Structure formats: structure tokens, C-alpha cells
Amino acid sequence: MTIAIKPKRSLGLKLLSGATILVLILMGSAYLLAYNFLKEETSTFTFELQSNQSQLLGQRFAHIIETVTHDLKTLQIPGAKAKTELASQEQLLSLEAYKLNGKGQVPNRFFKWNETPEREPPTPAIIKELLQTGLSYQAVSNSKGIPSVYLYSLLESGDPVVGPTIIKAKLNLSDLIRKSGGTQAQLVSRLGEILLDTRDPKNSGSQINPSNPLFRAAHLSKVSIGTLEYQMPETQDTHLGTYIIPGYNVVVLNTLKYRDAMKGTFMLLEKMLLVGLALLGAALIVVVIFSLKLTRPLAKLTEATQVISEGNFDLSLSETSGDEIGILSHSMNQMSKKIKELLIESVAKVRIEQEVAIASSLQHNLIPPTSIITTRYTLNSHYQSASECGGDWWGYVETEQELTIMISDATGHGLPPAMLTAATHGCFSAIQKILKEMPDVSFSPSRLLHIAN
């Protein structure tokens, strides 16, 4: 009884699983490489764009401060021409002048031009910064839609009794924003006050968070430009930031949320993922087709081996593929044919061996026993054929007068000589009968051979 063995997992399923895993590994590796590459490129591009925008804003603001402070140094305040000269300054919206005594206290204002409703004297913090650096800033809380900032400048009078003069100038930054090309950045004072926020003007005048990593890095930096990827302590959002220090006690901060910067990259990666999934589906279809083309002939070969194991050698497998499977199919056909031929030969050989065995048994029965004892004679013999059957034979007949022994030897071995010995035995049996019927007659060997022939 033959039991058909079924595979636990087909070869096609193994091919499909292996191809799927391989394609997923390749896709995952390619996706990871693309993600890291695009991440680095996007960060680099963002930092470069922020740097260019911040440098443009910082350079233009520094140019305005440099021009205004230079003109203020040559301005005679108070004086008859002061207001006329101030009216010719495009960046100036208003100007106030204060005298600072030796104790650092602010007396009453002694000069004004184009006064604005938000009249406020310099604060102690501003006076302290003025004494240290000569410049300070203050955001404008109400600028009637005009982006502006207060510039505080310290002018030395040269008279120790009079003391230095504090100039409070309101600067128009509309031209600065217009020429900055839509730059989205923050102009922050040394004290941490947002003087101008081009992205959200409502933030102007607010205090920047002291724990802001980008502002701290700019405050501690010894170089004029830097980039930083950081997280805000409040929201834990990752940001990409650039700082520019143009001088004049201000710093330009340009920051962008990481997810906003990577939005285009994420969209590209999503499209890559969709394309990759489509390619995966196409690859799986190709693998399925290929595996079916490969496994169908193998399945037929498997069925053929089971048929052979059941004893059926009449196979006719297709040999048209021309590849290794075609060669294997040809070999299977030839093998089944050879096995069938060998089985037929084996059956014929067994039949011949059985016939030879019967002939050998019969031949041994035709030969006298190895030990014969009569009243007058004792005969001892040994017979050993070179094969199962042979052409050797001997026999005897005893009469009252003599003992006749006949020995024959047929040329060759096997069944034909054995048949001759059987004929010889038959002939000798006839001679034996004659000798027993005529006991008084003596026959010479030549006469016996003549009778036998």
C-alpha cells in the first residue's frame, strides 16, 4: 500500500513568501535611505533659506540704524533747523529728547517732534542698556497699522554738568518689510523683547521666552550666524531655527516647526510609499505568475514520482520547456522506461532461474547417489557442476557377470547441456533395460556407444 505524501507548504507559497519578504526588505531599506536623505536635504535647505532671509532682514535693519544714528549725531537739538531736518528723514515718525543727570535719573523732556499719543519716558532697564552699549529698543504697542519700533540712542553733550542726551526716535519699518521679500522672522532686542514679528505682527512688543533654546544660543554665541534643531519646552514640538546677529544690540530669529518644514518631504514620502506598494503588488503578481509557471511542472513531476512509487511506469511528461525542468521531465520519462524494461527483464530472469532450478533438481535426480553398496561392489562418487545445470552425467548397471559404468560429458554449461544429459539418461535407461533382459550377453563399450547413438 502506497501512501501519498502531501507537502506542508507548497513551493509556490515559499517562493511567494520569500519574494514578498525580499521586496519588503528592499522597499524598507530604500524608504529609510530616502527618508534620511530627504530629511537632511530638507533641513539643509530650510537652514539655508532661513539664513538668507534673516541676513537680508538683519542687514537692512542694521543699515537703517546706522543711517539714523549717524544723522542724529549731526543733528543740533534743540535748534531752529532740527524739525526741518527731522521732517526730511523718511524712516522717522517722531522724536523726543531727554536730559540725563549724573545720577541716572530722567528729567522732563526738553524736545519733541511730531509727538505720538504713546508718550513714555525711557525705563530704568533701557537707561541701563544705554549706558552700557549706547543703543536700546522698545516695541511700539500702537502704530496705527504702520510697523515701527522705538530707537533709544545716547548722545554725549561734552558738558559734565548737563550730562548726556537720550534720543527716543520712532522708526518706520514699512520699507524694511517691503524690501525683505516676505521674510518670516523675528527681530528681538538684547533684552528679549520682540521688536518686530513679520509672521505675526501681534507678537510685536511681547517678551520672548527666556528658555527659548534658539534665543539662548544666539545670546551665548560668539559668531554672527548659527542654526539649531531644538524642542520648545512648553509644547515639545521640534523646530528648525536660524539666528543672525547683525550688531546694534538686536538678533534676528527665524524658526519653523519641523513638521511644517517636512510637510513637502512627508508628502513625497507618502507618494513614494504608494508607488512602492503599487510596485510591490506588481512584483507579487509577477512572482505568482512565475511561481505557477515553475511549480506546475514540478507538481506534475511530484505526481509522476507518486505514480512510479505505486508501480505504474507508463509516463509521458511534457519535455517542451527547454529548461532544467524539461531536462528533468525527459530524465523521468527515460527512467520510467528503463525501470519498466528492467522489471520485464527481471521477471524473465526469475522465470529462467526458476526453470533452471527445476532442471538442476531434475538433473541431480538423474545422477546416482554418492555412495552405492551392492553385494559385490561399493561405489563412491562426487558430482559438482560448474553452474546450476551442467552437461556431466554418469550412471551404472550391474548384471550377474559384470558392472557397466557410463559417463557422459556434454560441451558447455547451463540448460542446453542439461537437456542433453537428460537425453543421455533416457538412452542409458534403454540400455540398462536391454542389459537386464539379456544378462548372459556381454556388451563392449563400443557396442554400447553404438546402441546409444
Order of helices and strands: HHEEHEEEHEEHEEEHHHEEEEHH
- Count of β-strands: 14
Q: How far is it from the N-terminal to the C-terminal residue, by CA? A: 58 Å
Helical residue percent band: 40-55%
Q: How much of the residues is beta strand, in percent? A: 15-25%
- Class derived from helix and strand content: alpha+beta
Largest sheet: 5 strands, antiparallel
Output the number of helix runs. Answer: 10
Mean pLDDT: 77
Spatial ordering of strands, largest sheet:
2-1-5-4-3
**Residue runs with pLDDT of under 50 for 5 or more positions:** none
- Which term fits the overall shape? rod-shaped
Radius of gyration (CA) equals: 61 Å
Structure in words:
With 453 residues, the protein is of the alpha+beta class. It contains 10 helices and 14 strands. It has helices spanning 11-73, 82-87, 124-133, 174-179, 213-220, 258-261, 263-309, 324-366, 415-437, 445-452; strands spanning 92-99, 109-113, 135-139, 148-155, 165-172, 186-189, 194-197, 225-231, 238-247, 250-257, 371-373, 378-380, 390-398, 403-413. Strands 2-1-5-4-3 form a 5-stranded antiparallel beta sheet, with helices on both faces. Strands 7-6-10-9-8 form a 5-stranded antiparallel beta sheet. Strand 13 (390-398) and strand 14 form a beta hairpin. Helix 8 (324-366) runs parallel beside helix 9. The two termini are 58 Å apart.
